[in-house]
Design goal:
Two copies of one chain form a homodimer. Chain A is α+β, with helices and mostly antiparallel strands. Chain A folds into two domains: 141 residues, Nucleoside Triphosphate Pyrophosphohydrolase (Alpha-Beta Complex); 75 residues, Arc Repressor Mutant, subunit A. The first copy, chain A, is built from seven helices and ten strands. In chain A, the strands form two sheets. In chain A, strands 1, 2, 3, 4, 5, 6 and 7 form a seven-stranded mixed beta sheet that branches. In chain A, strands 8-10-9 form a three-stranded antiparallel beta sheet. The structure holds a DNA duplex.
Chain lengths: 247, 247
DNA sequence: CTAGTTAAAGTCATTATGACTTGAACTGAT
DNA sequence: ATCAGTTCAAGTCATAATGACTTTAACTAG
């Protein structure tokens, strides 16, 4: 390997790039979208995500993450949100960059660098987005074989979601405007895949205190009506832009 | 805005992209490299990073992050590591993707999408990489104005580093093969920018136990010789690849 | 009116944490 | 050789956080 001159290394113009390679890598955007839906058998809330069927080669007829090209007029984040809207009709409660995947052989013909986002939407939204021949919702765990490296991408998104959930406030982005404490607990149980003591969970939530109690109660249940709460924190994803836009 | 057919949304070939825009965005790689060096005044270890002087427009004569084009033969991670080697001669102890920056006006002429990595190197390595006219080390806090959006990028890398430090094991990647517990504490103090109780810190380290005691002691000091320890955990960065390579 | 169920709050033992103290080991000056 | 000064290393103690469990309140179905 030849060692370049140190000072010139940062001047990477498009001309420089095309000097080195005949075919530059293509840029793509994809999004992993999570929503909570009742499981088929138990009825308890579980994690689902929408996939689209590929109608062309490569990987024709396999399921893949929704995505599309990077539109020139938008930032990466805006392009991802617009793409989500165009492909699935969903408006995310939470949207954050996941990772840039750039392995050499992700796509058989040309090299593709995918900048992948992940999003959370409410169940109500997920219900609205009706399924078609080529768009279906799947349970996030135990997915079949997907196109490209999308199985790995989903697994990584799941890992990130569980990580953030552990000590964050994203759980609320899977819920509506108001919610009961039991619903928050069900979100945690669905994502972390384990049962949680209701009493202790309640105690922690109330002292963490990015939620406030309303004076309303959820009616219509079979038992004692639970109080409704409201989330008082931020509504956007953690990304560099939001960090520095404040000052 | 025209709504694309749902099923076709994932088929993003290079042809598709160039249909929509005359000039596709350029792809670039940059890296934020942190090392510990003694402060000029206090002598205590502080965070430093190397920058390179731009010798062309735009932002001629301003300092910028080291980087370069995406080489065709390497994965993103490998390309970042190779770039590091070529521009600064440094071999990182830790290398992880930071973020893909794709704002519309990051570079004045053409749109540039930068995939940025961040790295940790040992102080001994940092000392070896001698400074030149166009490569200099700077203190990570209170940086002057840099080229492009590199100030924001450095701030974000600092934020990630502090986050990871809080409950992780990356501190050891800034140290050598063996180290004293006081040195680990100095890393934490330098990164988190606050003093830490030595006794309590020692207790936590020993029960966290991704380190093991050697039977050697650091000689040559002015006082009681401290025991040397060795890190027993992983040596690579957290990235999707390493997560799934195990099974 | 009662049994059954969930909501909500409280109890208690165990563990983790922060502030502080004590003793051990070494150097350099007297 | 002794002692002052410094750091290493371990220990103490009060407080806070956590997990397992119990108790009481509020509602519905029968």
């Amino acid at each position: 390997m030849d060692r370049m001159a140190v000072a010139g290394a940062t001047s990477f113009s498009a001309a420089n790039i095309s000097e080195r390679a005949a075919l530059p890598p293509a840029l793509a955007l994809s999004t992993v979208i999570f929503a909570l839906r009742p499981s088929e058998n138990s009825g308890r809330p579980t994690l689902w995500l929408p996939l689209v069927r590929r109608i062309r080669e490569p990987f024709k007829d396999l399921w893949a993450l929704p995505g599309g090209p990077l539109t020139q007029a938008d930032s990466l984040q805006d392009a991802a949100a617009r793409n989500l809207q165009e492909t699935t009709g969903l408006a995310p409660n939470y949207l954050e960059q996941l990772y840039a995947f750039g392995g050499l052989h992700r796509s058989p013909s040309q090299r593709v660098v995918s900048i992948v986002y992940w999003a959370l939407v409410q169940s109500t939204q997920a219900d609205l987005a009706q399924e078609t021949e080529n768009v279906k919702w799947f349970r996030a765990d135990g997915l079949q074989e997907l196109a490209f490296d999308h199985n790995e991408i989903v697994d990584y998104a799941l890992w990130r979601l569980r990580n953030k959930m552990a000590y964050g406030s994203i759980a609320y982005h899977l819920l509506g405007e108001t919610f009961t404490l039991a619903q928050v607990r069900e979100v945690y149980e669905a994502v972390l895949n384990r049962s949680i003591d209701p009493a202790n969970f309640r105690r922690q939530l109330k002292q963490a205190a990015h939620i406030e109690a309303t004076d309303e109660f959820l009616q219509g249940g079979k038992h004692r009506p639970p109080r409704l709460y409201r989330y008082t924190g931020e509504r956007q994803g953690e990304q560099p832009g939001s960090l520095f836009s404040a000052h």
